[in-house]
Structures are given as C-alpha cells and as structure tokens.
Amino acid sequence: MATTINTTSDEIAGITIQRLNQVIARGIPSELEEVVDCTKTTLGNISPLLQSFTDNPNASRCLKGVEDLMLSYKAAHIIIGLVGETGSGKSSLINALIGEKKIVPTNCMRACTAVSTEISWNESELPEERYQAEIEFITREEWRAELGHLFSDLSDSNSSTFTTNNKDSDAGVAWAKIKSIYPLLELEALTKTNESCLARDASIRGLLGSTEKIYAPSADLLYKRVHQYIDSKEKNSDSRESSGPSELWPLIKVVRIFLKSEILRNGIVLVDLPGVGDSNAARATVADKYLEKCNGIWVVAPIIRAVDNKAAQHLLGETFKMQLKFDGGFSIVSFVCSRTDEILIEEAVESLKNRCENLDSEYRDLLALKDRVDVEVPAKIAEIEQLRDTITKASKEASSLNKKLQVWQTLATKQAQGHPVSAPLTEGSKRKCTTQSSQSSKRRRSQHIIIDLTDDEDEDANASGNGRSLSAEEIQTMLSRLAVENIGIKKNIRELKARIITIDDDAQALEDKCKESESNLLSRCITERNKYSRTDIQNHFAQGIELLDQETAIRENAENFDHNHRIRDYKQIADSLPVFCVSSRAYQAKMYPTKADAEFAGFVDFDQTEIPQLKAHAQRMTELGRVAACTKFLSSCLRVFQSLRAWLDVKDLDVSISEAEAAREIQIVKDCILELEKTLDSAAKKSVVDCRDIFRKQLYRGFDIAVKKASLSVSDIASGWGTPKDEGGLYHWATYGAVCRRGGIYARKGQDKIDFNENLVKPFKVLIADAWEATFSRDLPRILNDFYLTTKIAIEGFHGRIRSDVQHKGTANRIDMLRPQLMMHIEAIKSSQAEFGQNIDGWQREANRELTPGIKQAMANAWSSCKQEKGRGSIARMRDIVCEQVQRNQKTMFEKSSKLAKKHLDIM
After folding, report:
1. DSSP state of 231
2. pLDDT in tens, 449-486
3. Average per-residue pLDDT for the chain
4. Distance (Å, rounded) from C-alpha 727 to C-alpha 723?
5. Maximum Cα–Cα distance for the chain, whole Å?
C-alpha cells in the first residue's frame, strides 16, 4: 500500500498539479473541459486509496474533499432567447442552427407562434430516445382564467348575449379556440355553462397540469408525433362524434425538445419565444421568465423589414427596451436579419447603386448579356433544328445505300457460288408511266450502275435479278462505288453532329456565362445589402438607446437637460452590437443538396448564409461560463491535491522542535488566523454597509422622488385610454373594452401588446432607470471588486507574516509548500466574486420585475369590475371605473410597487 501511495503522491505533485495550473492559466474552454474529465477520473482513483486511511484525520478530511468535489461540478448553461414577430423566421433559423431539416414547429403549426419552444442537449444514449420532447400543459386554474377572457370576448359589449361575428374578430377568435377544445359544443349550449364547468370537463381533465413525454429515434418521427399531439385533427378525423379536443395547442404552455446537436453540446439552450400577439396569460408568463433568465437575446427580423422599419431602434417596443435598461442587458443583445435570400436584383441595384462602385454598370452589362442570350440562343436552337433535319435526310439516304449494298453483296455471293446473276431492276423498269426527265434520270443512274431501291419489296425482287447478266468485275465495281458513297454520307453525318455539339456548346456557354454573371451580381448584392444593413441596424440600435436615455434625463430634470450631453459612448454601443444577416433556406439547401434550388445561386458557399458565423457567435457566448465552471472545479481540485500532497510528503521533512517552540509557532498561527478573520469580517461588513448605503442614497431616495412625480401624470394616462379616438384618444372603444376585461393586458395576432399596467408604471420606471442601471452595472461591481482586493491583500499578508515569524529549520519550507494552495484560495475568492455578481444580476432582475405587479395589484379591483360590465353603456362605465381607481390610488400604487422592489433588494 505504501508504494501505491507514494506513486500517487508523485503523480499529484509532478503531473496533475502542474498540468492543472497550466490549463487554468491558459483558460481555453475545450482544454479545460477535457482536463475536468481527466481530473474526475483521478479523483475516482484516489478515493479508494484514501478510504483505507479513515483512521487518519488528514486522510478523512481529504477523502471528504474528494467526495464533495465529485458531486460539485455543474456544466454551464447559456440560455439564448429568440424574439421577433410571427413569421420572422425564428423557427427556421433554429432548424438550421441545430442541423435538422425540420424538427422545431414552424408557422404551418398554429401552436408554434404562441408557445415557447426550448431546445437543449439530450443526455440519453439510447437509440430509441435520441430525440425527445416534453409538452407541458397549462393548469386547470390557468385554463379557467383563459376561458373567462374568451367568454368576455364572445359577449357583445352592448348585450349579455354571445356572438361570433366574423372569424377575425375577437369573438370569432375566441369561439374558434373554444371549439378546438370542445368540438361538440354549440354556441347556444355555451350560454348555459360557464368557465368553471368547462375547465372541469372530463375530456381535458387528464391533460391540464400534466407533461407529456415523447421519444423517437429520428427527427422526422419526433416532428410527426409532436405535430400530431399539437394539432390532432387527423387523429380524430375518423370519429366526428368524438367529444375530445380536435386541437390541443390552446392548452399548451411550453414545448421542450432534447436532441444531440453540436451547437447544444456546450450548454447552449435555444428558446423560440412566442411571436407578438398571444393573449394567453400562462404562456406570456413563461416567455417573461425565459427573458428574465436569458444570457443572450437574439432579435430576429426579415432583412427587408429590419432596416425599413428600424426594428433594432424600436426593438419590439419601448417596454422591452426599458426592461433591457433595467437588466443591464444591452450588451447581451444580438440582431439577426433573416431571409436574406429574398432579394430581387433590380430592386437591390436601385437601392445600392449609390453605395457600391460599378454595381449599376455590372447590372447594365448583365442586361446586355441577357438580351444577347435572348437573340442568339433561339437562333442557335433554330440552326440546330435545321442541322438535325439534314441529318435525318442523310440518315435515310445512308439506310437506302445499306440496302443496295446488301442486294449487290447477295449477287456477288451467288455469282461466287457459280450461279448466273443479272442486274437488278431499276425504278424505271418497274414504272412504265414516267416522264422524259425521269427516264433521263434513270439512264444517268444506269450509266453509273446505281440502283435506287426504296422498299423491302424491291430488295426481295431484285436480289435474284431480272435484267442483263452481270460480270464479277461489274459487281465489284458497284460494291466499291456504294461503299465510297456510304462512307461519304456517314462522314457528312458525323460532321453535322459535331457542328450541332459545337453550336449547342456555344449556346450553353452563353447561357452559363449569363447565369454566372447573374449569380455573381446577385451574390454581390446580397453581400452589399448585408453590409449596409448591418451598419444601419447598429446605428438604429444605438439611436434607440440614446433616445431612451434622453427621455429618462428629461423626466428626471427637464430644466437642466442638455441634448448635447452623452450619457454613454453610443458609437461604441453601435460598433459592439453583433449583427448577422442569414438565410436559413439557403443553408439548408446547401446542407441537403437534393433540395437545392436555383434561387439560392447567389450564395457561393455556406459562409455567405452566415449561419456558420452565427453558430460561432453562440459558442463564444458560452466561453465565459464554461471557463468559470471549469476553473472553479479545477481550483477546488488543486486545493484538495495540495492538501493531499502535503499530507503524503510530510514524512520527508526534517523537522525537530521542542514542545515550547511548537507551542510558540502554534500561537503565532492562531494570532495570524484571528487577525485574518477580523480583516475578512470587516471587509464583508463594509461591503454590506456600502451596498445598503448605495441602495438608500441612490435607489430608495430616488424611489421616493419618483413616487411623487409619477403620481402626477397617471390620471392623464388613464383618461387617454378611454377617450374616443375622434377626440384624440388612443384606442377604439372595442379595443379599450377588451383590454379592461383582460386585466389591463391585451394582445392580438399581428399587433403590439397593449398593457395598461405597464403604461401606468412607465413614468415611475423612467424616473428610476438611470439610478437602477448605475447601481447594478457600476456601483455594486465596484464594491465587489474592492472586497476581492481587500481579501487578496489580507490573505497574502497572512501568509507573509507566518513566513517571516516562523523561522525554525524546515518549518518555513513547509509553509512555502502551501503557497500554491494559498493562490488557489485567492482564485477561489475571485471566482466566488464573479459568481456572486451573477447572483446579484439575477436578484436585481427579479426585483425590477416587481414594479409592474405592484401596479396590477393596485388596479385589481378595477379590472375585476370591468370584467362584469356588459350591455348598453358598459364602455362608459368601464372608463369611469378605471379613471376613478387610478385617481384614488395614484400615489399608493407606486408606493406598493417600490415596496415590493425594496423587499427583494433588502433580501439581497
């Protein structure tokens, strides 16, 4: 056993520790992960050796450290949320990124635009579970609440009856959603039931609140099974009387898909967030939770709309942009311009000609080349047709000659056998009624001994011959002449065919040149459009942030506002925004060439689709998290290895001291440890005090000021909602009623979400936004860094003092042996600082999201009352209820919001 222990000690001291230090210093993610796997194996080998020394306290301590380490490693997960309007191409983009033809539901499936779809790595190694999916359904209470909204939409605002109006109206959409779940329910029967009864219906009782798991060995099979589950019309088509749901998508909260794809291997989780327009509260909550946790946000928009609509500047609404400001999330945004394959050369040249040198002249050259193709290619085709006609005639003549050869060869054979033969009959001999010119022609042919036989009958008749007797010389002369003429005809045919090939090659070369020129020009247009779109989007994004900063500054202090003052470096923000212009369809066409289409000729390679670059960008997003996770684990391993090494090597140290000297050194160590504890405790308390001071002076004081200022504007905001549009109001009366009945939140497909609660809290958010951002993006990171520096200095001082005070022979060397472990402790503190910073970021995201719920709570009674209003005058009564509620709670609603946020911050 001793030999084994010694060998392990040498390995830890000479190989493992040295390699770990080098790998940690380099900080390469893939190398770190490889070493993590190797280190786990080493820990597994060390553990049984230590178990044989359980009576030794040092060994027991090391064993516990090893066992804890084996369970401590957690791979980093990076959540990337894809946001964008319905039809922006998010699902197709994900399919391209994960390398599957079709696995994420696209907009042919109605549920896909409303449900968050999460795609992550599949840990299963079973072939039949290579592809997995989970479909999570909303709870009964969530469905009951949704039915309540649907009942409200079905109710005519001027009566208590139900009406479906047209299919595109709120009532029509609500009725279609109810019928999809209850296909046998009729409108008349709906008036006799309520949302609670329907939510308890036996046909959906087993689904609500459940999670269905699907397994498949292939992507196609998984897609079919998910599709069948989400839209089960086909499943129920044989049973029209089935009382079960015909479609399940209204009940689905989230879809999770697990598969093995290279982009997901390093912990990336892709989330296809719902398109604009879903009104389901449960699904909206899921989407908001994902956004709260996202490490990266990719805004996806078709390239045509991305620039024209300034999508990066608007960034899906002011509310979303304000949330990014609170989250400190501008740096995690990337922009993806999709569908770059949708381009027309003529339009592209017109928009790009002033930006791109010679582009217009290249386009004119292409048009000239196309005109040349339009003229020359048809002419060449016509010439080829003429040549083919000539070949046809020559071929017939050659066939006739072959028949004549056969006749004369038969005559030659008979003569050689000793049979007398005579000349075959000519055309003139068989046709008595001929013109003089014909007879002359026959005579001329007779002189040349050319017999013109035109059919098989002639061949049979003349093979025996019925004319004058022929000599062998005459027969041979005829055979020679026929052979020469046959050779000439065949040569002519070959020359004609060669001419056809040349002309056809010339035509093809001209067409290929035109296609190549068009492809090159199209490729250049795609590249140039991507280039200027990237620049414009970056500038629009920075302008949007600047406008938000200016609005905040005006709200805080309008009198001292200076529009020339730049709160931040907006050029740097523009330059640092990652923008990718991608074509998922072109990438898929090149990935699976059997489905390639000529419309993608402008994409010369995979890189021009920019999908590979987007994949690389995603992997770069994982690097910090992967390095941090690996470094934390390996640093802990190093501390354990150093302790193990010190214990194993203690026998080699020549240390001999008296009890008095030992007591003295122990006391020195105790004093140093006590001083270190005091220093660290003081640093920790100072950090807490500094944080509270920042909260009190910068945030809480700002809260108080914001409550007073924001309360002055909310009455006007509320009255603007209900004012008729022809009098300057914001909404149509039907829209206003729908919002009020839905708790102040309303969304329709293809339209921006309306959120009255968010409208009310906006003045308050604007007033505290800068202070909030400064606190969590600047001040708290500074406090954490100060704590780390203080701790580092204290630990180094602790080691130095012990080193200088303990001078006994051999002891100092033991202390030096622990210095690497000291450095590992410092690294661990640095890692903990970064981890704590991430925790603070998560806590502050939770805290700032308590601002709007505070308003919603204050307005709860009003929204509940509005939901009960029906019949004539209901819109006017709703307006009075809302305005009165806002007026009565104009100050307390903000106090409640700030109180909820403070509660989270104090816990932090």
Report:
1. S
2. 333 333 444 444 444 455 678 888 888 999 999 999 99
3. 83
4. 7
5. 152
Boundaries of every domain in the chain? 659-907
Q: Which residue has the tokens 């009190």?
A: 696
Question: Tens digits of per-residue pLDDT, 756-807?
Answer: 999 999 999 999 999 999 999 999 999 999 999 999 999 888 888 877 766 5
Euclidean distance between CA atoms 272 and 297, whole angstroms: 11
- Residue pair 136/254 in contact (Cβ under 8 Å)? The answer is yes
Looking at residue 275, its amino acid is G
Cα–Cα distance for residue pair 62/648, rounded to 1 Å: 11
Beta bridge partners of 762: none
| Helical segments of 417-471, H only | 427-430, 436-447, 456-463
Q: List the one residue out of 478, 489, 832, 885 whose CA is nearest residue 717.
A: 885
Return the H-helix or E-strand segment holding 580.
strand 579-581
Burial class (CB in 10 A: 0-12, 13-18, 19+), 344: exposed
Backbone angles phi, psi at 726, to 5 degrees: -70, -5
Eight-state DSSP code of residue 777: I
Residue 697 has pLDDT above 50, yes or no: yes
Question: CA-to-CA distance for 243 and 622, rounded, in angstroms?
Answer: 48
Report which residue type is found at 700. Y
What are phi and psi for residue 558, nearest 5 degrees? Answer: -65, -35
Residue 820: CB partners within 8 Å, gap ≥ 6?
Answer: 17, 21, 638, 642
The pLDDT value given to residue 63: 80
Closest CA to 178 of 209, 202, 154: 154
> Which residues are 120's β-sheet partners?
258
pLDDT of 428 above 60: no
Strand partners, 333: 297
Q: What span, in angstroms and rounded, lies between the C-alpha atoms of 157 and 737?
A: 8
Rg value, the chain, Cα? 43
Given CA atoms 819, 822, 828, 833 in this order, what sign does their dihedral have? negative
Closest CA to 208 of 274, 148, 135: 135
- Region 234-262 average pLDDT: 73
Tens of pLDDT, residue by residue over 518-547, are: 999 999 999 999 999 999 999 988 888 888
